[in-house]
Amino acid sequence: MKRPSLGAILFGLVPFVAVCFSVGLWDRVYPIVLGLPFNFFWLILWLLLTPLCMWGAYRLEERRAPDDRRDDGGAH
Amino acid sequence: MALTIISVIVILGSLIAFSARFHHQMDLEQWTCGGRGFGLVLVWLLMAGEIYTAYTFLGASGWAYSRGGPVLFIVGYWPLACVVSFFILPPIWEAGRKHQLQTQADFFQVRYGSKYLGAFVALVGVVCLIPYLQLQLTGLGLIVEVASFGGIHRTPAMIIAFSLVAAFVFVSGVRGVAWVSVLKDLLLLGAAVFVGIAVPHIYFGGIGGMFRALLQTKPGHLVMPGSTTNLGHTWYVSTVLMISFSFYMWPQFFAATFTARSGKVLRRNAVIMPLYTITMPLMFFVGLSALLILPGLNNGDLSLLTIVRKTFPAWFLGAIGGAGALTAMVAAGVQLLAGATLYAKNLFRPIIAPGMTDGQVAKLAKVMVLVLTLGAVFLAIYTSLSLVSLWLLGVAGVAQLFPGVVLGLFSKRVTTAGVVAGMFTGISITVALMLTGRDPYHGLNAGFIALCLNFAVTAAVSLLKPVAVAGFDETIPAVTPSEPGDGISLT
User: Fold this and answer.
1) pTM surpassing 0.90?
2) Nearest residue to B421 (alpha-carbon basis) of B128, B112, B96
3) Which of B223, B228, B445 to mutate to test the interface with A (most CBs of A within 10 A)?
């Protein structure tokens, strides 16, 4: 199989660093943001930011692989 | 009252499932893969149906209630599992289309040229699905018991609901399950958003007020390790990594991948999927509110239902209960379908009865739906584990398939012997650590330790000998039809 591009992998690594490896930095109560302890706020934020990163990866990958057939993405 | 509404919702869902079979001839391909014609919306619903299960619904609030901070692993692994799926699902789908794959075991069988490896993978898949099925059942039993104010014991509730599931899976296959997902997702999303916002609002004037109250009474509960002693940061990192790599190793997700119309659908799906768990923190808030209002429940998994029962009128408890019951049924439906197909197609036919036709395999798969249902009901009645613990048990098992899948896709150097050796190592270590109660082991998730050693052994054994079986891209005939009309079995 064709391997993904380096750019797409880098986009994919960003959420890994943000929500996994850096846990020691953000797993704290203060500062409270929008009424949420910081750790809750941070992870909820990344539920929103991860799609942005992956959208970047998507743009890169689609440029490389425009060969998908039968695709219009809609419901069946 | 609550019980009437639950029954109405469950019956409505089952009717939708049954009617999905009209206009479709149900051969094995249609039954398990929906004819490979699902677009973005149906694939999304099918996969999301598997994410919002009884475990997320009750288990997430349950862990927030009983353990606190460590529950964050659920919103930690989920976006990362989507990232991993972005990279591995499109090539899996591609291989599936090229080689007419229907199951996860087909993938291993074709990639590594061994029907025994295929059969072993099928066995691992079926065995790991059982705790997951059991979890859906236990969740469903809890829901009906609480919603009926103890009037209906969980055992008859489980038996009735699972007979319905077995029936609609039997009749309509994956198409039926996908369409019930629509109803239950709408109900569940509505319920989750409403309860998650209303409960903290009613008791504490808002989510901020709830957290302030919690910080005063239990300041340590909100950061890891929360109210546990051994679920700290090392556990978090290892658990999140292990689950995000292995989440799509569940056999039912492989099956769902093959229903997609194109690889592009799967990529787009991966981009938007993290948004689907945006309601999950609301379940945490409900569990945390319950901790303040109803401390001392001995089963955290009951916290959401108990607080809903205490706060809202009976009809609302019924609506929540119905959504939850349907959720458990949909998830179980997908799992039953995957387990039964795996058993009939990849375990029974190649090893025991090579002469079976596709029609006979389809019949056997349908019988297996009933057998697995009975097995799960039996386990759910006679054993007890918390919902999240059951799920973690299964996921650590399927995680051990990850090296074989990812190296199979992207490496030309991996050998069949390497994958077999790695898988045996991984599974033995998982079983040894979990059965002796050593999870987490020195702060690390047991499945994660097993996965690392699995990778190491796979690599080491692969490098010992040259490659004998070509990858998916090679033209060496990996698939040889064994009889007319059968493009799947290997010789």
Assistant:
1) no
2) B112
3) B223
